[in-house]
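U., I forgot to send this yesterday:
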Amino acid sequence: MIAARVVLAHVVAVSTPVTLPVILMDVLQAVLLVLVAAGAAVVALTREPVRQVIVLSAYGLLLALLFLSFQAPDVTLSELAVGAVLLPVLLLLTLTKVRSREK
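Result:
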């Protein structure tokens, strides 16, 4: 009886109205992986610090989308909070302080 409930709960959890076909998810994940790889290269090749921070924030959003496509909502929320918001804000504040000391 318990095994039947577990199987039934699994079937109900998997078949939601917003479930995408497997092939579509595979294509989405492949596209996001390519975009993340390209985004990492863009972050590394950007020379101006302020632009690099902005690109880094966009890269954090791409990573969050990638984690979401792999069905990891906890990692997605962490990446959104830290990689897309907190780290860029701290870097921009640091750049502002360094530039004010240079003047």
